[in-house]
Amino acid sequence: AATKLASAEKLMYFCTDQLGLEQDFEQKQMPDGKLPVDGFLLCVDVSRGMNRNFDEQLKFVSNLYNQLAKTKKPVVVVLTKCDEGVERYIRDAHAFALGKKNLQVVETSARSNVNVELAFGTLVQLVDKSRGKAKIIPYFEALKQQSQQIAAAKDKYEWLVSRIVKSHHELWPNVSRKMQPAPEFQDYVYLEGTLKAKKLFLQHVQRLKQEHIERRRKAYLALLPQALDALVPDLDEIDRLSRSKAEKLLEAKPDFSKWFVVLEETPWDAGDRVDEVDSERIPFDLLETPAAEQLYEAHLEKLRNERKRAEMRRAFRENLESSPFVTPGKPWEEARSFIMNEDFYQWLEEPVYMDIYGKHQKQLIDKAKEDFQELLLEYSELFYELELDAKPSKEKMGVIQEVLGEEQRFKALHKLQAERDALVLKHIHFVYHPTKETCPSCSSCVDARVEQLLSTRFLRPHRNPLGDTNVDRINLVILGKDGLARELANEIRALCTNDDKYVVEGKMYELALRPIEGNVRLPVNAFQTPTFQPHGCLCLYNSKESLSYVVESIEKSREAAAGRRDGHGGQLPLTLVLVNKRGGGGGVGGVEGGETLQSLIQQGQQIASKLQCKQIGQVLKGLLDAKRNLNLVVGSTSPGLKEAGEAELRGVICLMCGDPVSADEVLLPILQAQPCRPAPGGGGGGA
């Protein structure tokens, strides 16, 4: 209760942590060793003490207070250890204070750091009246506020740690130095201390390490099904093996080291393996974990299910083959109820069955068509009396169907009537035009197969007087009505060498001609066949009607080409040729009477502009007339070949520029895609 203390050369601010370690703390002595006392904190322990009677304790506190009151100095009663306080003790302490005049009580807990500053602040206010009066808060309310403050500071500190610490390899000394200037770090350390700040840091580092391990674990587990598929894809190999024998089997596989690695330190997540970020091989001891065991069982189950599904697919195909209800052309919806059972639905999805059924239907239909084709060949006498244009009347088609109607091979296609009728028409075309192109066997035609085999397995020797081995094949379509195409093709063939060679500008070409005079929509008159891919087309006309035929045929051919998947023949290089009247006898027919040459030239120019062959930019229109001059061009290489190539064809003119043209200029746009020379005055367009 003394108000003046003298303690020369004594250190200030002693606490239990300083005892024996004074040199580790700040050295600060009392000034002059004298210390006046301005007020007192009367501390009362309200916890349950061992062998201690609180009533006796309170009597001692009462006697002590009486001594302090005599000093006339401010006194504040401080209840300590309220975090373990007994409610009756606290109540009795407050009752004691109420019996005294202006004696204030502050409930504190040094361990929880609750109201400690408030106790000193209350005493300071009593000493210095100029200071504002502090509001005394009960312990539990202050504890709540303190907890909220600590929680907020903790959240901010944890945010700071997560922002700075990104790796589980970080160390506390380095990180604490980085965080030292941050207010989030300072506030939390002030409230909770450095030890708790370090503890939260270590928890964050451990969490980062666990997250890293979990990422590695997920990566390994994601790779495990692929490894099992690669090493043990056969169910018979592992179906009845125990786990230990299955692991030994895996180790014995040649590619084991490609997928797995056997570690000296196990488990894998306790060693340095965790930090090998680039590691792609699975630690073998991972197979002992429950997650890996589940994946292994899932692998077994997948193999068993695949086997069962394969058995179901096989059983379904056998059911299709043996079922009398599955006929060519029958839709899946009609056949499903007859061939499906509960097991099929249990193991496979309906789209799988539909795919199998579709493939089976294709086999049935192909076989039925083949049998029907044989039937048509057996009844060849039905087609003897048809007209040569191969267009049977409805009555004749009725007779054919009536005669064949009782045949099972005819009935097999009753759900495919349109295709059956198409087969009949195709057979009729074949009867009157028996070629590779109209053969019902299509690409399987023996003639076509022989040509393909010969072209791929045997080299055809070429006689080339020029010694040039670079010989290209040019397939040309000659389109013309009323015999124009056949006549020109015959003349060209007659004038070529034995090997059908044509030389232009020192390069040798092998010519293959296909004259067409009828409906190009019929297979026999098609521009393109399985064995003939055209490179260009010579279009001949000598009248308005023959010009109309050329236009219609070109348009039909382009429509047919647009519908084909291969897209060939959509835009062929074209040469539009006007055939004029011959000065002498024989040869290609000329312009028919009643129509002037100038009129046909103008019509040809208009049609050329309409056709617009984009692949060559412009299309040459010429007139072929003189057999003698043509012979000099396409004949064998004689001493006069150069002069003949430069000679002009008698009666052959360009429809665009009006100038005479040479024989080479007729075929050159097809062979080299060269445009005609421009007309005087810059005229263009057409071809």
TrEMBL record:
Residues 309-371 form the FF domain. Residues 293-320 form a coiled coil. Residues 650-687 form the PG2 pseudoGTPase domain. Keywords: Cell projection, Coiled coil, Cytoplasm, GTPase activation, Nucleotide-binding, Repeat. GO terms for cellular component: cell projection; cytosol; endomembrane system. GO terms for molecular function: GTP binding; GTPase activator activity; GTPase activity. CDD domains: Ras_like_GTPase. It is found in: Cell projection; Cytoplasm; Endomembrane system. SUPFAM superfamilies: FF domain, P-loop containing nucleoside triphosphate hydrolases. This is RHG35 protein.
